[in-house]
Write a structure and sequence with these properties.
The structure holds 2 protein chains of 2 kinds.
Chain A (H helix, E strand, L loop, with lengths): L5 E12 L9 E13 L4 E5 L6 H8 L7 E6 L2 E2 L5 H8 L2 E4 L13 H12 L4 H14 L16 H13 L5 E5 L7 H18 L2 E5 L3 H7 L2 E6 L2 E7 H6 L4 H9 L5 H6 L30 H5 L5 E4 L2 E3 L12
Parallel strand pairs in A: 3-8, 3-9, 6-7, 7-8
Antiparallel strand pairs in A: 1-2, 1-4, 4-5, 9-10, 10-12, 11-12
Chain B lengths: L1 E12 L2 E13 L4 E5 L6 H9 L7 E9 L2 E2 L5 H7 L4 E4 L3 H4 L6 H12 L4 H14 L5 H4 L9 H13 L5 E5 L7 H18 L2 E6 L2 H7 L2 E6 L2 E7 H6 L4 H8 L54 E2 L7
Parallel strand pairs in B: 3-8, 3-9, 6-7, 7-8
Antiparallel strand pairs in B: 1-2, 1-4, 4-5, 9-10, 10-11
Helix pairs in contact in B: 4-5, 4-7, 5-7
Classes of the chains: A alpha/beta, B alpha/beta.
Chain lengths: 330, 316
């Protein structure tokens, strides 16, 4: 297949909060607003941004755990944005998800064998014997022992649980896996194990990932391309190396500069951009550029006119009226 | 100013005795920032809770000595401890939502602390609360004081918790992962704030974190903990440029770099931290250590040098 595996076109998601009778009345949260991108087979798209920027909502929209408010999702050429839950079923074996919290995402009353076998039982006509074999095989792939199959989730550490979640996600040989903060609940030493496991599986099983995380160094490590989100929209997109080497959007620059680096040599040289204030409420997003309230270089135009995500350099899109120029060095 | 010697905290559980902290010793000097790093379960939080006298579990047994400015804190009467806590030694907790009461305004919660330790009028305490909110850079402190915790963002709540800890100008501040629950941009604000407060108040700070990046930024000296013990101690410079313990080295190596060449695979520490119920005999890190040899079945000691590691491969 030469086309993109996933096309996201102008996707919006709004939630209603409150009721007509609550003090502030019925309000709308603009969780996602005009998000568009494509994902090519075999690549990893990293989605980064602060909490509340809509990255997890986007992940859940792609897997159709949420219905879109508007916009189009095309998976391998098929429009899946308006499929009913029943019509969506055959697609689900091709799009899987791994969740953030390995404690909450595994049913504590079921054995590992059943947790991993469930997608197989739902989606395939395999015999119990074959399912047993497949579960053993999956346990081996994710680095667990065969005798772990009969245990319950509470007997495992966080890293091992995340391996179970991954085994369950790859059980049906999916093409696309949405990973929603798969390592952020884990300790650093275990985090690296899971990051390596995901990289191995991608190579071995030809997987395409959408990797959602707020830890920038992890995202840089795993992603081929990165989309930076702020208040429900993508503000910058490009290859992972390029974005980290030369961020063009002032938000991306601030985000990258805010990460404390475990390297004393880099401490003195790094110039930190400390953003003032908090992320505005998505109930009442600011006019114009949504970042203008915290932007160090905001001007009059930013308050009134919303910048579109436009191509600044080949493969590099930025939504800013005054981006740092890339052309000369690219 | 703080001298901890052979601190051991064990919990009686149904499965047996868990030694969460096992023979930990460290010092904190006046005005110093000591960073404590370790993974979850390494005992970093429990050892500092013991310093605060906040381990109230009847199944906990605390042994060893904790001296604050020459005064022994282990076995101190709860009443005497209460006078010290909040006034001389204060703590900032990890999760600012659970550290605040949802049913009172933040101004009231800060003023309460001021009233508990000083003989001042309620009006003066309220004024002090507003001053403190201003000091931690909360915009419009008079209005913010009337807010409830749920009306504030995570970063604002953490500022309130810091304001509360500062209310009596403590000489020692214990910060337990104060930025872990926050986004990086907000974390940068809070770290800046802590820098400023240190300059203005000169308090000593014990900063617990699992983030080596944060350590590199703020610490003077560091302790690295593993399975309830201190495995390495030294200044920040020593630990980052010449880490001695294999665990410290592996920890630094397993962090993906933010600049430069991407490694094809990350270096990993195989396995998982030991279960404290049946800790392996000898060095607790040995089962995961790539340098282990025959001697590791015995227990390595930390030694007394300023930069020391509890490892047989390290010349003492």
């Amino acid at each position: 297949m030469n086309g993109p595996l996933l096309e996201v076109v102008d996707v919006a998601k709004r939630f209603s909060v409150g009721t007509r009778f609550s003090r502030q009345g019925l309000r709308t949260v603009h969780a996602l607003d005009g998000v568009s991108f494509t994902v090519m087979p075999g690549e990893t798209l990293g989605l980064v941004g602060e909490s509340g920027c809509g990255k997890s909502t986007l992940g859940r929209c792609i897997t159709r755990l949420y219905d879109l408010t508007s916009g189009t999702l095309r998976f391998a050429g098929t429009d899946i944005s308006s499929l009913s839950q029943r019509q969506m079923r055959p697609m689900r074996r091709r799009i899987q998800m791994v969740f953030q919290d390995p404690y909450a995402s595994l049913n504590p009353r079921r054995r590992v064998r059943d947790l991993i076998a469930e997608p197989l039982r739902v989606h395939s006509a395999m015999s119990e014997v074959d399912i047993g074999k497949r579960v053993a095989e999956l346990l081996d792939i994710v680095g667990l022992k065969p005798d772990h199959a009969m245990r319950f989730p509470h007997e495992f550490s966080g890293g091992q649980r995340q391996r179970i979640g991954i085994a369950r996600a790859i059980a049906l040989n999916p093409e696309l896996i949405v990973l929603d903060e798969p390592v952020s609940a884990l300790d650093v030493s275990v985090q690296a194990q899971i990051v390596n496991l995901l990289a191995d599986l991608q190579e071995r099983l030809n997987l395409t990932y959408i990797f959602i995380a707020h830890d920038l160094s992890v995202v840089r490590q795993v992603s081929t391309r990165i989309a930076v989100m702020y208040l429900g929209s993508i503000v910058e997109m490009g290859s992972a190396d390029d974005i980290f080497a030369r961020p063009a959007h002032p938000y991306t620059q601030a985000l990258i500069s805010a990460v404390p680096v475990p390297d004393l040599a880099a401490q003195g040289s790094a110039r930190r951009i400390v953003l003032t204030g908090d992320v505005p409420s998505p109930v009442n997003p600011p006019s114009g550029c949504r970042f203008h309230t915290r932007c160090p270089i905001a001007q009059e135009r930013c308050r009134s006119e919303r910048p579109a995500l436009t191509e600044q350099a080949p493969g590099r899109k930025v939504a800013c009226h005054f981006p740092t120029q890339l052309a000369s060095s690219g | 100013m703080l001298k901890v010697r052979d601190l051991t905290v064990s919990f009686r559980t149904e499965q047996g005795i868990v030694r969460a902290v096992d023979g930990v010793s460290f010092d904190v000097g006046e005005g110093e920032l000591l960073g404590v790093v370790g993974e979850s379960g390494s005992g970093k939080t429990v050892s500092l809770l013991a310093v605060m006298g906040l381990i109230t579990d009847p199944n906990a047994v605390i042994a060893g000595s904790i001296q604050y400015r020459g005064r022994e804190l282990v076995g101190l009467k709860p009443r005497a401890m209460r006078e010290l806590r909040g006034k001389e030694i204060a703590m900032i907790f990890q999760d600012p939502m659970t550290a605040l009461t949802p049913v009172y305004t933040v101004g009231w919660q800060i003023a309460e602390q001021v009233l508990a330790h000083n003989k001042v009028s309620k009006a003066a305490a309220w004024q002090r609360a507003i001053d403190l909110l201003a000091e931690v850079n909360i915009p419009k402190p008079e209005e913010a004081a009337h807010r409830y915790p749920h009306q504030l963002s995570g970063g604002m709540r953490q500022r309130v918790v810091i304001a509360m800890a500062l209310s009596c100008n403590p000489a020692l501040l214990v910060a337990d992962e104060p930025t872990t629950a926050l986004d990086v941009t907000v974390q940068a604000q809070i770290l800046d704030l802590l820098h400023k407060l240190r300059r203005n108040h000169g308090s000593a700070i014990v900063f617990i974190t699992h983030d080596m990046g944060v350590m590199a930024e703020i610490a003077d000296r560091m302790l690295v903990m593993y399975a309830g013990r201190v495995v390495e101690r030294g200044t920040k410079q020593e630990l980052f440029s010449a880490p001695m313990h294999p665990y410290t080295r592996a920890l630094l190596d397993s962090i993906p770099p933010l600049t430069g060449e991407k490694p094809h695979r990350l270096k990993v520490i195989p396995g998982t931290p030991p279960n404290l119920l049946n800790r392996p005999p000898g060095c607790a890190f040995a089962p995961r250590c790539e340098m282990r040899f025959e001697k590791c079945t015995a227990e390595p000691s930390l030694g007394s040098a300023a930069h020391a590691a509890a490892c047989f491969k390290v010349p003492a």
